Automatic annotation (TrEMBL):
Entries under InterPro entries matching the protein: AsnC-type_HTH_dom, Dimeric_a/b-barrel, Tscrpt_reg_AsnC-like, Tscrpt_reg_AsnC/Lrp_C, WH-like_DNA-bd_sf, WH_DNA-bd_sf
Lineage: Bacteria, Pseudomonadati, Pseudomonadota, Betaproteobacteria, Rhodocyclales
Pfam families (alphabetical): AsnC_trans_reg, HTH_24
Name of the protein in its database record: Lrp/AsnC family transcriptional regulator
Record key words, sorted: DNA-binding, Transcription, Transcription regulation
UniProt keyword Phosphoprotein present: no
Chain ranges of the HTH asnC-type domain: 5-66
Length: 157
């Protein structure tokens, strides 16, 4: 499907990334199509797996997780068992919001959101304690969010 994406599809994807609540009529008006054409294009993009879902982007305060952090993880080894244990942990841990597999010095980058520093400390201890999996962690606390998921965070001051 990516080969057959036209300029209107790309415009629709950009608009939906910025505001997933746009109606077909609103999208149609913005990209110059009828609402029915827009609906068909949106459905085709969803079915092709190019639109993965529609989500509300909550403030950390709204979901009770005002402390955000970034954790770089280096695995001790890359055996199937070690990777499976690590993947299972990160998939089940609610505090871990995003997991990216990397090239370079670290194997994974985790974006985490927790209620307080004590919760972050517990999460780090749990990660470090994964049996024969994790060899090194480096954690940074997020001081300010400027942009997430391609959207600029409004300044509260």
């Amino acid at each position: 499907m990516t080969d057959s994406i036209d300029d209107k599809d790309r415009r629709m994807l950009d608009l939906l990334r910025q505001n997933g609540r746009l109606t077909n009529q609103e999208l149609a008006d913005l990209i110059g199509l009828s609402a029915s054409q827009c609906s068909r294009k949106r459905i085709a993009l969803e079915q092709a797996g190019l639109i993965l879902g529609y989500h509300a982007q909550l403030s950390p305060e709204a979901d009770g997780t005002p402390v955000m952090g970034v954790v770089e993880v280096r695995l001790q080894n890359h055996t199937g068992e070690a990777v499976a244990i690590f993947h299972d942990f990160v998939c089940k841990a609610d505090a871990i919001r995003d997991v990216l597999k990397l090239t370079g010095d670290y194997d994974y980058l985790l974006k985490v959101a927790v209620a307080d520093l004590a919760s972050l400390s517990r999460l780090i201890q749990e990660l470090a304690g994964l049996r024969n999996c994790v060899s090194h962690l480096r954690t940074s606390v997020v001081l300010e969010r400027l942009k997430e998921a391609g959207v600029v965070i409004p300044d509260k001051s």
